[in-house]
Amino acid sequence: MTILDNIVKDKRKEVDLRKGLIPVSQLEQSILFSRDTISLANNLRNSSTGIIAEHKRRSPSKSVINQSLNVQDVAKGYEDAGVCGMSVLTDGKYFGGSLDDLLLARASCNLPLLRKEFIIDNYQILEAKAYGADVILLIAAILTREEIKQFSQFAKSLDLDVLLEVHNEEELHKSIMPSLDMLGVNNRNLKTFDVSLETSKALSTLIPNDFVKVSESGISNIEAIKELKPYGYQGFLIGENFMKTDNAGESAKQFIKSLL
Ligand SMILES: O=C(O)c1ccccc1NCC(=O)[C@H](O)[C@H](O)COP(=O)(O)O
């Protein structure tokens, strides 16, 4: 069993429980459900830095990163730093996140928010919209092509952007379709947890130019961004590098300042 197999197994149980607690009709009545979303893809296309900053308390690869930051302060700090968007991990068991984190981030900033989750059911896409997200993540490693198509079309019908994440060529070939906005290459090998920017470089030429290219994980300095830009990357998802500090927003601000 890989880490993703375990996460998905737990996620199926969790989603079934959540469906029993909050019916779809209640999600659709959320005041945020009718809010106009903000496009992360557009922000990235028009940015010279392309930073998507993540709220991440812990992870399977690093266990504890930072349990003491307050998500509202982090969201305000990231906005003040001038990031293009914020990613909020909502998985509880493996990442220490929650849908409340998403809601609090929504209440604290006007950035496009990515619900960083292991999506296996339409219900989670409705939750994303109801709790204030603008973007959902779909992970090719845990979905069939049919599921990617169905979930991405459903997200688009709710005016949400879609970021599709791949780890290798096979996942990329399986996934390319017009209902995606951004293609993310995850630099973290989920078997060994090693990170290598070479993954983003190797897959870059296989991603059609109609999609915004995003490089994810293991980005810890501005040299990495300078290295990846010539490969066509316009988005850079950074979690641990900001979250491991006492002030994630300030850390993002200094990072962006040195990029400009
Ligand atoms: O981060 C992990 O350990 C992890 C393990 C298993 C599945 C997903 C995982 N991370 C999710 C992410 O994609 C990252 O949080 C994101 O790309 C930011 O990465 P980093 O800058 O390295 O914190």
Automatic annotation (TrEMBL):
Enzyme Commission identifier(s): 4.1.1.48
What metabolic or biological pathway is this protein involved in? Amino-acid biosynthesis; L-tryptophan biosynthesis; L-tryptophan from chorismate: step 4/5
Select a single GO molecular function from the record's annotations and give it. indole-3-glycerol-phosphate synthase activity
Q: Which InterPro entries match?
A: Aldolase_TIM, Indole-3-glycerol_P_synth, Indole-3-glycerol_P_synth_dom, RibuloseP-bd_barrel
Identify the Gene3D superfamilies for this entry.
Aldolase class I
Stretches assigned to the Indole-3-glycerol phosphate synthase domain: 4-254
Catalytic activity of the protein:
1-(2-carboxyphenylamino)-1-deoxy-D-ribulose 5-phosphate + H(+) = (1S,2R)-1-C-(indol-3-yl)glycerol 3-phosphate + CO2 + H2O
Keyword terms of this UniProt record: Amino-acid biosynthesis, Aromatic amino acid biosynthesis, Decarboxylase, Lyase, Tryptophan biosynthesis
Question: What NCBIfam families is this protein classified in?
Answer: PRK00278.2-4 (NF001377)
Q: Which family does it belong to?
A: Belongs to the TrpC family.
The protein in question is named: Indole-3-glycerol phosphate synthase
- Name the source organism: Flavivirga aquimarina
